[in-house]
Write a structure and sequence with these properties.
Length: 377
Amino acid sequence: MTLFSFSRFWAILVKEFIQMRRDRLTFGMMMGVPLLQLLLFGYAINTDPKHLPAVAVVAENSAFARSLLRAMENTGYIRFIGAPVSEATADLMIRRGEVQFAVHIPPHFAEDIVRGKQPALLVEADATDPVATGNAVAALQGLDTMALIHDLKGPLADLQKDGAPFEVRLHKRYNAEGITQYNIVPGLMGVVLTMTMVMMTSLAVTRERERGTMENLLAMPVLPMEVMLGKILPYIVVGYVQVAIIVVAARYLFMVPLMGSLPLLSLAAIIFIAANLAVGFTFSTMATNQLQAMQMSVFFFLPSLLLSGFMFPFRGMPVWAQVIGEVLPLTHFLRIVRGILLKGNGWADIWPDMWPVITFLLLAAALAMIRYRRTLD
């Protein structure tokens, strides 16, 4: 029986370190992924978002109304953007996801308070993401007894003794019961497509190279665009099958409402699928083997999953993380699919998130064609 040899062990150990040093991409992934996870989970993940954007619909600009709006901002959860707007504008901004809350101060608000009529204050919340609005809603529900405590003094002090001087009526739009499946299941469509489309396509060219069939492909009189489209189109069909399965499951297993147009969702899905396939094809032209292509896919998928707003509230992340998230197509597709399914959004409503995905698709496709190697070296 051969005894353990330290010299042979040392030779294998040195060989592995040399191989690791030569494979720079793998070494970079081993160092980069833990660092990326540390930064994202340590800084970017926040389940208690504050300073959520809101608008006010003010029918009466009284001292009580101004004190109430300031009290809402003092909770730390509400940040009014711009001047008061009309009801139609507030509805449009909530539907497009531009604001999280719309506060409606009714006419004769101050007069009704002074007369002890306890007027109703309407607060509309975009509840498509229950985690994002949960703590803010809890903070707003306690305003009725504290917001006007500094205004109701002297002869008006008795108005505080009989209970709250006004009533806060909260309207949770699009997900009144706070069901998490309404938010998670539509988002899974984008997550599944990102993971499968990028990963599978990234292996397209590297598989040809490893199997030795790249020579046949290069010998064919085809253009880079023809090669890319030929390899991408079959996966578009696969992506559509995935979309159909998720939509059926969302409707009949999780009872997610389908308020919008399915053809519009299909159009948005095909653009999103194409964008991810273009990214995968670009990775396949950069990698020398399937392992490297898989590593690149993971490095793209991880930030997409954490910074898109799928797992954690997007507005709870720091500004730098939101800037990175806005570049990723998954961030915009989540808003599109949730807007179509839960809010019934049309083309005009999804366009602010549609054009970034189209731009990403064009840039990724252009880079893929530039990177496509017409030779084996």
